[in-house]
Structures are given as structure tokens and as C-alpha cells.
Amino acid sequence: MYYFLNNRLDPNSSGIEHAEVKRLKLFKQNGVSAKIVMSEFNRFAHRNLPLYGLTDADYVNMFDFFAGTVNYEYQAMAIEDLSIAEHFQVKQVPVGFEVYDDDRKTMEIVLFADNNIDTIRYYNADNNCTKADFYDTRGFRSLTQIYDTGDGHLSYEQFYRPNGTIYYEISYEQRPNWLSATNLQLVDLEGKLHSLMNSSQAFRIMLDELNQQDGTEKSTFISDRSNITNIPMVYMKTPARKIEHFHSIHYQDYDDPASPLSYNSISNKEQLSRTDLIITPGEQQAADMRARLHTHVPIVAIPVGIIPDEQLQAEHVSMSEREAGKIVIVARLFHEKRLDDAIKAFAQAYQTNRALTLDIYGYGDGSDNYQEEKMLKKLVSDLELERVVNFKGYSQDMDSVYNSAQLLLLTSRYEGASLAIAEAQAHGVPVISYDINYGPADLIADGTSGFLVNNGAVNELANKISEFFADASMRGQMNGAAYENSKRFSGSNIWQSWKKYVIDTE
Question: Which residues form the Glycosyl transferase family domain (predicted)?
Fold first, then answer.
């Protein structure tokens, strides 16, 4: 069995999750058993699986694993199933219901769209929320959080199996600048109690138990989130093959490849020695890592941008069938994506070609209150481009987006590999990108299926946009070349790399 390790699967996932899903489907197509394994609690996960064409059989979550709900049949859980005292008054509100004891609100019941229970919050006489119950989308209470009524910070969490027994508990203490998990208790599937220092230890226990369930088969674990899943993997206590898969640059300063290494998994020699193989998305990064690390651990390149056969065989959409002047960006609205450069370059090109439009597909960074997204929208406003630059958010239907676009832009400060470039070209969309580490130079046939411009050169980027839209013949040629270039990333071609470096080496 092959296990792909990550933290969570959401409706608006990043390129890493999309790459994992593509890899999973590739393995299944070639008759090799594999699953995606996630470390974070996610009560919505099984509702999200169909968005990616996955089923319960493709996915294991750590909390599901210890709760015994990896495969759990949906059960309706409506307000009628709750035990609410008869003398309480239940009032319907927009989000669900509120429950009162005379004039005092005791509960707030939030419902999912299907009218099953989402969350129940409980209130004391001072109208402070004392605890909240959170329900899995499959119809059982999965988590209770208890809050300090003094300042409202989270103080305790209990995680439940469907039968109501607790299998995981976390205690929290409020520190000056953060909330610290001070004690974790896990009851595993055999009923053994573990007192843990952190959730990584729980994840390691699960990985070992998954490994033992596979019997005498030597399983392979592939860590796709070096900063989250690599340490639990390399410190497993049962024998297994352990692979670290990089999806981004391996050094801290994106302008300086000689800067300190980003992850302990490669900077710590003892941790690195526990790894059997390192995979990068491109040859240049693999070569740079070999030169930098001086390790006996093999470092190989396997592209992540797998193009399904059905897309390669799809009818081509010519430039004349697309929306004239439509430029797209597919990227998170994060600082490292440097979308302000793209907007500024577009603004220059727009001055000489008023037929151009720019649609930006991606979600913002809630961890900093969407500062980057706010800055980008203000920039669009300041440049008076609101009519032609549109923030489209996250989309599950990228096929129609690519099939209507004439050009894709990429202005990231760094990448490991850009799925957007590979997917755009597979839909016949040429790409203009900064020549950065790593990815664009591996993916774009410069001057044929798109252009590489000097890193950070906004004026050069603007000039290339203008040049592209000024020449209909060029657009047509690059349209065909993009389709042709994407054949390099067919499932059969990528599978040969997996067979060479991973599958057939066992």
C-alpha cells in the first residue's frame, strides 16, 4: 500500500492536494493500491471527497481512524433527535434555532443546509458561551470544545466516537501570544491510553497502526507536507519505506538558493538519514538539492502536473473560439504569488489594448485577515480597473475557465511546480511567467508555448502581454504548441517515472 501524507482536504485546497489526488488516480489506473492520509481533524472531509472524485476507500483521516469512522454510514441528526427539556422554548432563527429557559438563552443550534445539526453552543446566565458541540456531516457529535468564561479562550477539547466514548482529549493554556496545547490523551483502537506531547505523536501512532494492518507487505509512505507530516513518518517504529515529496523550494530566501534550508527533514542529518528517497517536481531542483545536501539519500525528479488521458484526447479549442483578450491567473491570493506585479503589468498592456480582461481565480489568506487580498483589490481600484479585473474566488470547474481563456499569467516569487501552467497548456492556453525557481522553465517551451520573462520585470511582462495580443498568428501557433507541449505530462509518461524510481525499486 502507498500512503500520501498531508494535513487536510478542503473544498478550496491548494496545488499540493490537487497533485495528490491526480497521483492517487494515476496509481489506481495502474492497479497500485494507494490512499490519501490526513492528520488534522476535519468533520467536513467526507462531504468534500466527491468534489475530487474520491470515495471513503481513497481517504484516511487520523481522527476518523481512531474514532472508527473511516467507513461510516450517514445518519440523519436533526433537532428532533436532541433531548431538550419540555419547558424550554425553541425559537427558529436564520441559522437554525435558539433555545430559552424563560428569558435566558441556553443553546444556539446551527444547522447544515440539509437541516441536520452542524453546531450546538451552550450559554451560561451571563450569556457567555461555555462549550460547543460540533457534528460530523455524517450525523454524529464528533467534538466538544469548552471555553474559559473569563476571556473566552479555548481550554479543553474532547473528540468522540459515534457511541459517545471519548478517544482524544486536548488541554489548552493561554500564553501571552498564543494558545498552547499542554496535554493530549489518546485512546487507540486497542483501548490503550497514550499521553502525548503533540499531535504529531498521535499521527505517528496511526501511521504505525496503518502499517501493521498491511501485514507482511512493506508499505510506502510519501510525505507531501514536509513541515507537518515528515517527522511523524521518519520516526515510525515499524519498518516501512519513507519518501519525502517536495512541492516547493527547499531554502528560506527565495532570492538566494544558498540561504538556509527550509526544513529540518533535510537540514538535520539524523532526520535525513531516516528517509529512503526524496522527490522533487523538476530536474533543476533535484540537481540543486544533490549538490547542496551531499547525502546518500537518492534525490530524483517526478513531475506533479499529471494530465489525464481524457483531457489530452479532448477536442481542441482554437483561439477564435475563446473570449477575445481574456487573461486568467490561477493562484492563491497570498504574498508569495506576487499578483500585484501581474495587475500592474496588465494595467500597462490595457492602456494600449482596451479589449483585455483579467480574471483571478484563487482564495485569500484568512490567517492575516486577508491583508494581501485587500491590498490587491485596492490596487485594482486605484488603477481604475474594476470593470476589467475580476476576483473570481475558488472554482471547482476549471475546465470551462481554461477553455475560454487566451492567456495565463504566473508571477510567483517561487514555486516547486505550478499545476496551473501544466493544466492551462493542456487546455491550449499559452503561459507568460517569471523565470523563477522552480517550475516554469521545466513546463513552458519558451517562445513556443509561452514566454519566460526575467524575474520581477513588470515592464517586460507587460510588453510580452501586448506582443502576444498584437499578433493573431502567434496566438494561434502558441495555442497549438501548448496542447502539444502538455503531452509530456500524460499519465503514461509520468507513470514511467514512478515505476523507475519508486514502484519497481521495491
Answer: 325-484
